[in-house]
Design goal:
The structure is a homodimer. By secondary structure, chain A is mostly helical. Chain A has 7 helices and 3 strands.
Chain lengths: ~170, ~170
């Protein structure tokens, strides 16, 4: 969308596509590029180094932060994926001894999922390497630049949340 | 990975997980949050407003920038998806009259895909709204803040590329 092949006439262009919208589009495309770049590299390294998929790593990361365990619905909401997609992943990790699944003590219809000691220890070994990969990805930014980026992304998050909360359009 | 349930002993922590790695991890998680937030909102609006999927919109956006057309391999490389996943999408858009597919004049084994007039006009109507959605997502940032963010993301892109180019680890 950056370079239009067939130019619109000048008036339409001025009304419908003011220049500052182009800036924001470029900003969004760059944000997307950064995320895709880092994510695909993390995905590749997890596979090559640990033979682990990104969804599996993300699932274990969620559970590592929840020693009391989580229900499938909690996990699904946190990871923004459907219950259906999670179920197979959880089944496989229960079979391999990385997760423990038992009936909730507070709600007998719900099942609570936890990392086993094996799961936690394997996850933490991966997480340590993962952290150093991420640190290397941002290595060219000074401490001050990282702080600035953190603040600006915080502002972007708030702005996008507000815009998303509005009626579509 | 932000809050560990069972703290590691202090020495291991200092050696393996220096504080600045935590900062970079938080930065990465925030980058990911911003991207997911905007992307899922765009996906939702494209569906509700135009009954169009994000991959379809992205495909048409690539072709809008290439009036001379693109081969399936070019498209696949640009969009970072497999040829297999693209083929079905292209087939459907050829059937609906949005795309035109013909044998390349320079390489008779390759097929060149182009937007038809219908495809281009439908895409541009969507692109105009899409641009205004994106502008709204970044509306809380001042012009200066957007410029800063653009620069810092440019630096991040370079840094991540360099890190990804290195041998894994």
């Amino acid at each position: 969308m950056n370079e239009r092949a067939i130019p619109l006439d000048a008036e339409t262009k001025a009304v419908e596509q003011p220049d500052h919208h182009r800036d924001e589009l470029r900003l969004w495309l760059r944000l997307l590029t950064c995320t895709s770049l880092i994510e695909s590299e993390v995905r590749r390294r997890l596979r090559e180094r640990f033979d682990v998929t990104l969804p599996r790593f993300d699932l274990m990361a969620q559970l590592d932060r929840a020693p009391q365990g989580m229900t499938l619905s909690d996990l699904s909401r946190r990871m923004m994926v459907s219950n259906g997609n999670l179920t197979g992943l959880v089944d496989r990790l229960v079979s391999s001894g990385h997760l423990d699944r038992r009936t909730s003590e507070v709600d007998r219809r719900a099942q609570v999922i936890r990392l086993t000691d094996l799961g936690r220890s394997e996850f933490r070994a991966m997480a340590t390497e993962h952290e150093s990969w991420i640190a290397a990805m941002f290595a060219d930014l000074s401490r001050l630049e990282r702080d600035d980026l953190m603040l600006l992304l915080g502002k972007t998050k708030g702005s996008a949340r507000r815009a998303a909360g509005r009626i579509s359009g």
